[in-house]
Amino acid sequence: DDDDDDDDDDERPPGFDLFSADERDPNDEFCLRLGGDGDGDDDTAGTTITLRGVRARNPHLLRSTGLTLWKGSEGLCEYLRANPRLVNGKDVVELGAGLGLCGIAAHRLGARNVVLTDGDTDALATMRRNIDANRDP
Fold first, then answer.
1. How far apart are CA 41 and CA 46, in angstroms?
2. H/E run at residue 122
3. DSSP assignment letter at 8
4. Who's near 65: CB < 8 A, 6+ residues apart?
5. Of 22, 25, 32, 114, which residue is 20 to 30 A from 127 by alpha carbon distance?
6. How many whole angstroms separate alpha carbon 66 and alpha carbon 88?
7. H or E element: which one contains 39?
8. What contacts 95, CB < 8 A, 6 or more positions away?
9. DSSP letters of 75-129?
10. CA–CA dist 133, 106 (Å, integer)
11. Which pTM was predicted?
12. Of 10-24, 35-49, 104-118, where does mean pLDDT reach its minimum?
């Protein structure tokens, strides 16, 4: 059927090379709510973090693990949310921070200083944008 041919130009290839001349953006924007029951009580209100990156369900889209949101980082953030004393008032260093989720969560949970590092320059640029998007109001 000739009508189906028009849709082929809009589809992304199964893999996406960040370093190619292809200018399409492979990133997703998503919000993560950490903790809280939604009743407005300060102790359980939780926090929302907005990130830009690639969810781990699509790791084939990039050639960098630092641009991917991994389930392990979401789990660590939930653990920190349940145990804020681990970071509250402390200095935190996150090595290989990727998108910066855990460091942003540590900051929101009261860490005194947070240092985020990554060896991938594209991950660092994305991390900076994520930090800017999640600055305290």
1. 9
2. helix 121-133
3. G
4. 59, 98
5. 22
6. 26
7. none
8. 117
9. HHHHHHHH-GGGTTTSEEEETT-TT-HHHHHHHHTT-SEEEE--S-HHHHHHHHH
10. 15
11. 0.70
12. 10-24
